[in-house]
C-alpha cells in the first residue's frame, strides 16, 4: 500500500493580526487597547515587581539580561515587570500575545528578558513574537499608509509615536521598515566613561544598530559604523531638548569596499537614552 504524507495549511501571522485587531474592535480606535485583546483571548494580566517577586527558578537567564514579561499557558496569565514604563509594558504584553497565538510557539511558560525583547535579539521565537507585537501595536497596515504620506523626519516620529502610544524608537523603526522611499534609521548608544580624564570629555555615541528601508538597502548599503558628531550629540541630548528639535547636517558615507563617498542628509534627534539619525539621500 502507498502512504502519502499530508501537510496542513497554516494560518499566516498577517491573517492572525487582522483577525485579532478586527475581533477586539481595534480598527475603530486610534491606538491598540491591550485590555480588549486580552479579553478576546481569555487571558488575565498582572503587573508586579519581577526583581522582588519572581521565583528564583524563573529568573535564570543568560548574562545580565533581566526578565521583563512572561506568559503561563496553563494559567492563561500574562505578567509584566512593574518597573517598565507605559510604552514598554504595552509592547511586552503584545509580545506575549504573540507567543500565545503564533503557530509553533505553544509552550507551558515563556519568561522573556530585556535582551529577548530588544530589536537586536537573534532568537527566532523572540524575533517572531516582537514582530507580531509591532504589527498589532501599529494596527496592521494602517500605520504604513499614514507614515508613507508624511515627511520622514523627527516631527513625524513624534506625532505617530504619540498617536499609536508607542516608543519613539519603535515608531522610528516602523517608519523606516514600512517606507517605500530610501531611508535608514541609525541608533547610537552612549559609550561608558571610566576615569576622570574621560569624564571631562563629552561622551562618545557609537552605532548600536541600523535599519534600512527595502529601497535604501538595494540602492545603497545595509549597515553603517561610526560615531555621532560630538557637537550634534551635545546639542540633541541637552536637558529639555524635545525629540522634534532635531539637527540636520550633510554627511558623507564612505564604502569600505571601493572607498567611494556618498552624500546624505542626516537628521539627528534624541530621547536622551539613545541618539537617532534618519539618513536620506541628498
Ligand atoms: Zn518572548
Structure, described:
The protein has 282 residues and is of the alpha+beta class. The chain folds into two domains: 13-137, Arc Repressor Mutant, subunit A; 181-281, Beta-Lactamase (2-Layer Sandwich), CATH 3.30.450.130. Helix content is 37%, strand content 22%. The strands form two sheets. Strands 6-5-9-8-7 form a five-stranded antiparallel β-sheet. Strands 1-3-2-4 form a four-stranded mixed β-sheet. Strand 8 and strand 9 (274-281) form a beta hairpin. The longest helix has 16 residues, at 86-101. It is globular, with a radius of gyration of 21 Å. The N and C termini lie far apart (68 Å). Residues 95, 99, 110, 112, 116, 126, 129 line the site of zinc ion.
Identify the notable features of this structure and list them briefly:
282 residues; Arc Repressor Mutant, subunit A; 2 domains; 9 strands; Beta-Lactamase; binds zinc ion; 12 helices; 4-stranded mixed sheet; globular; alpha+beta
Amino acid at each position: 500500500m502507498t502512504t502519502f504524507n499530508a501537510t496542513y495549511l497554516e494560518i499566516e501571522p498577517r491573517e492572525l493580526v487582522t483577525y485579532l485587531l478586527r475581533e477586539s474592535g481595534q480598527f475603530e480606535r486610534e491606538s491598540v487597547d491591550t485590555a480588549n485583546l486580552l479579553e478576546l483571548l481569555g487571558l488575565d494580566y498582572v503587573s508586579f515587581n519581577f526583581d522582588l517577586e519572581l521565583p528564583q527558578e524563573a529568573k535564570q537567564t543568560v548574562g545580565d539580561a533581566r526578565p521583563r514579561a512572561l506568559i503561563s499557558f496553563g494559567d492563561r496569565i500574562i505578567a509584566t515587570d512593574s518597573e517598565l514604563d507605559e510604552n514598554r509594558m504595552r509592547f511586552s504584553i503584545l509580545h506575549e500575545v504573540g507567543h500565545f497565538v503564533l503557530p509553533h510557539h505553544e509552550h507551558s511558560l515563556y519568561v522573556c528578558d530585556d535582551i529577548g525583547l530588544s530589536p537586536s535579539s537573534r532568537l527566532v521565537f523572540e524575533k517572531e513574537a516582537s514582530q507580531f507585537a509591532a504589527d498589532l501595536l501599529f494596527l496592521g497596515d494602517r500605520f504604513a499608509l499614514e507614515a508613507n504620506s508624511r515627511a520622514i523626519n523627527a516631527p513625524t516620529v513624534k506625532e505617530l509615536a504619540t498617536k499609536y502610544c508607542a516608543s519613539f524608537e519603535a515608531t522610528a523603526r516602523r517608519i523606516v521598515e514600512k517606507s517605500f522611499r530610501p531611508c535608514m534609521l541609525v541608533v547610537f548608544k552612549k559609550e561608558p566613561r571610566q576615569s576622570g580624564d574621560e569624564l571631562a570629555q563629552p561622551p562618545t555615541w557609537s552605532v548600536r544598530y541600523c535599519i534600512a528601508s527595502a529601497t535604501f538597502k538595494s540602492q545603497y548599503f545595509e549597515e553603517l559604523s561610526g560615531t555621532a558628531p560630538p557637537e550634534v550629540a551635545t546639542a540633541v541630548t541637552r536637558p529639555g531638548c524635545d525629540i522634534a528639535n532635531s539637527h540636520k547636517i550633510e554627511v558623507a558615507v564612505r564604502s569600505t569596499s571601493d572607498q567611494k563617498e556618498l552624500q546624505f542628509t542626516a537628521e539627528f534627534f534624541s530621547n536622551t537614552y539613545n541618539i537617532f539619525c534618519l539618513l536620506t539621500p541628498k
